[in-house]
Structures are given as C-alpha cells and as structure tokens.
Sequence to fold (633 residues):
Amino acid sequence: MIATTSTIDELVRNQNPFAGHIVVRPQQIWGKSYPDVSIINSHASNAVFDAVEQIRKGKRETVGITITAEKGLGKSHLISRVRHHLETEDDALFIYMGKYNSLNQIKYQFLQAVASSLRAFGGQQVMQWQEIAAALINEAKNCNYTPQQYISNIYPNWLSRYSTKTIDTLTEAVLKIKPDINNPYIIRAILWTLSTVHAHYANYWLSGLDITQTQADTLGLPNPKNLDKEAEALNNVRQILDIISHYRVPVICFDELDIAEISDTGFTAAQVIANLVKDLYNNLKRGVFLLAMYPETWNEQIRTLPQAEAVVDRLASEQGDRQPIALKYLNSDDIVALVSQWLQSFYQEQKQTPPRSLYPFNETQLRELGKSRPTVRSVLKWCAENFVPPLPSVGKILPPLPPCVLPPPPHPVKPCFDNELANVEASIDALMEEEATITDALLLAFNNLIGKTVEGVTIESIEKVEPSAANNGFMDFKIIGNKKRVRIGVDVVQQDHNVIGAALKRLIDYRTFNLTRGCLVRSKKINSTAIQARENLRILLRQKGGEWVGLQSQDIKPLLAILFVYYNRESYELTEEKICDFIEQKQIAINNPLIREILSDPSGQEPTNLTDDGLPINIPKSVANADYTELNI
Fold:
C-alpha cells in the first residue's frame, strides 16, 4: 500500500538516510554495508573476482591489483563490495588493513591486521580462523565435519574427556601433513580457536600479543620473547598465510594508504606497504593483493621507489600494461541507480512505499548531476543536503500555516557523529582491545579541555612522556595542570603479562618522569599470578597516591566516535574548528565520566566492574555425548 504523501513527507523531514553516511568505514566493510550498485565500477571488482577464480583453477598463483581513484570516487565502497561478495563463497577469505599507527613496525601491525581479519565471520558464519582450523583437522584425520560441528559438539566432548591432550594429538596429526611449518605453536593456536572457552586467548596470541602465564600454560603456547618483534611477526605471518592459502584463496587488501605519516627511514605509508607486498608476493603460495590509493600516490610515491619496476610488477600484475585500474566518475545512469538503491533500502527499512522510487527527488534532477561527472561522495552529499519534501506544484491552494518557530538546524558534525557512534557500538568489543585508538580518543578529549577546570584541575597542556628512552613507549601522555603542580602520567593498558608489569613500573617512577600521580586506565583485572605487576599496583595505589581508572565501554564510546569523525574530517568535509565546537557544545569531553575520573582525586582502590581476564582451567562437562571415534582422539 502506498503511504500518503503527508506521511512520507513527515518521514523525509525527520530522517535523512544520506546524512553522515558519505564515508565508508571499516565497520561497513566487515558488517552491514551501505547499499551497493554492482554495475558502478564493476570493471574493478570483476578484476578481483576473476583473479580469485584464476587462482582457484590453478591458472595463477599470486595476483597483485592496485586501484586508483581520487578522494570520494568509491575505493572503499568497492572494497566493501569485494568483502561481502567473498563472504558468500566457501573457498576465499578476506584480510583487511586500513590503519597504520607505526610505519616502523609495519610487519607487527600487519600480523595484528591478519589476526583481526580472521576473527571476522566468513561464509560459514563462524570465524575465518575456525574455518581454517576445521579444514586442518579434516585433512589430517580424513573427515568432513563443519566448523560448527567442531565448535558445538566435538570439541566440548573431546575437552571434557581428554582435556588439553586433545590439542596435543591434533597438533601432531596436522604437523604430519604440514612438515614445512617451523612454528608448531601457530598450528596449536589455530586449533584452539574451535574451543569457545579458549578462542579469545588463542586469537590474542596469534596477534603477537602476550597472554598471562596461566593462560599460556593452559593453552601450551609460549609468550613471544620480544627480541625482534618485526622479524618474528614477518615469519609468523608468512606461515599463517601459507596455511590458510592451502584451503582458501586469501584476498589481502590495503586501504587508506594516502596518509601523511613518514617512517624513520623516510618512506610514506604507501611505499612501506608496497615494499611489504613485494616481499609477501615473493613468498606467498597463492593469493590476491588489493591496494587502493590516489593516482598521485601511485605516480609520485610508488613509481619513485628504489627498484620501482620490481614493485610495480607485483602491485599491478593483473594488468597487462602494468598500470593500476582507475575507477570511473559517475554518469547519469549510475547516479539514478545509486540513489534509487539507497532510497529503496531506506523505505523498506521504514516499511513505507513512496509515491515514486526516487522520492523526494526526481530523475531529471539526478540526471542533471551526471553532466558534471561527479564522485560517489559528492552525489551522496548532494542527496543529504537536498533530502527534503518537494515544493507543492504551482497553483495548488494551501491552507494558511499557523505561526511557528523553526528549530535550529542540527550541528554539521552531528550526523557524522551519530554515524560513527553506531559504528562504534557495532564493534566495541574489538575496539576495547585497541590501546592506541583509545589513547588517541583520550588525547583528543584532553586537548579540547586545555584552559578549562575539571575536577579541581585546570588543564594547561598535554605533553609527551620524557625521557622517551626510559619510557620506551609505555606511558602514553602527561596531563599538566594547576601551574604545573599537577602532573598526571596516563597509560592505557589492555594487554597482560610483561606489558602490564612494565607499564606499572613506569607509572610508579615519579622521579624519572616528573609525575605527581600515575594513572592506569584498564578494563580487566590483573591476574594474581602476575606477582611483580600486583606489587607495582600496590605501590601505585597505596604508597604513591596513584589511581587505577576502570575503562568502561559506555564511557569510551562517545570519545571513540568523535575521534573517528576527526580521523575522517576531510572526507566528511569538516574542519577541526567545527569538530572542537561540537565537542564543547555537546560537552562530550568535559562531562565524560572516564575523563573526570582520570582527573579526580584518587580513591586508592581497585575499580569495580572489571572484566575477568583469567582463563578457566576446568572445562564444562555439560557437552554432547557423541563419540566421533573415527577421529581417533
């Protein structure tokens, strides 16, 4: 049934499906995406799908594809299309990297990106890690069970009967068919992902992060020695990619390469990744590399690399002319199809049927836009700005309007903030593990409070921690206030074992770092077996007057959301001034409980509502009774 025009117009006035949704974020790549029109730039996405098919059939082993397009032309939309297409297939998987916090540790970051990507659900609605683990066991034991069967029935049954000896036996069986794997613990950790009780800690270990000694003993996994993180990460990531490429075609995507950061060796993010891909390309048994960048990044950074020809051969190996695939500007047909798809999705979600498919726009308007050959982003921005009920036709007699006061227009940052907040809500569990991102969110908030007084502290500056050599990257920043009489060292620590101990050691060293207070920000308990860390914590709270602030997800969510708006301010076409004005107007920083707790007088107590980071040793007995004797465990 078609809704009345007045009903639809009321909906249009109150809900704008385009506002704040002009930027594709990683959450849309992994989760629910924006409406996609497959005909737009299908030449680029089809090149990826064709490469995967060639590798499946054994016609190619490794393919490199680089996509170039100016800002807003649809690079991330296309990557989202590739991800969601591969999600429907059983013989490919997707790995995504779009954040480069430290170009000097790119291999370690890439390992974490690989592990994070494989935690995402694949075509079988389980983690991609779990798909690989099931494939390893099926090949080693000549079986054909699904990952869900292992997770729901087989693993609980085995673990209740045989405890961790189950994993010992399976690891030995897999290593017999994978003799070229020189780190058996990688196999062991992958197999542990099929246990719902242990999967989180196995994932953590596979990311190159420390787990507590109790967890390490239970899983039978050694913590990394940290002698050379980069070398160890590269070795591990090569082996992981080799293992997964035996069962699935990995499509490894590098996005957001056009950032301004420079490594200590003088290379840009695009150049650092290009060299990494060159190395991986030479060693990967099979897979597709997909890179997205601006045309000028390709011409001015990739083409100028030392041994540029060797790099180009691998980054554009799919194209005969060794050139990147350029995305196209939209024409009139593309624009009509794009807007129609967005509106169809919107009206279906609202359970309304509009008078016409493009309402409140008309096709003539949209086709006129096509004459200027716009980008996807500019079209969506135009739609957001013009999503209003159409004016009544000329000659129609309208009743007189009652006097009214129009509400003030929303702050230009608000729709972007609301969009990012929804994304944060959808991925908060993963974000709670991202120490660097949480630290950046706190820094943005505190920098917007300089000159203001909060909890008795007049904030004067936010400073780096010196001496940097003694800090070694542990403590995150210092808050200076009250004419430098307050000097709070802040450290966000979500990791365990060596990291929490080293962090607390610095937080209690007031003399070296010129502190009046050390502040630990953390959501998890500190394991009782971490004896030195517990002792340093006692000193911090009881002797030094320091504080442990519990990191609660509801407190950090708005700070993360405004951080992501800040990260994407150019794409959102927002200035720093507008974002800062929104933070102040909405009191996002000054009224945030986490911010206020960091600045308030210390309680000297451990916070409540901490999550339990311990690993249960006793396996639940309430499991299925199936024997699965053919597996010979």
Q: What stands out?
A: The two ends are 60 Å apart (CA to CA). Residues 154 and 629 are 10 Å apart (CA to CA).
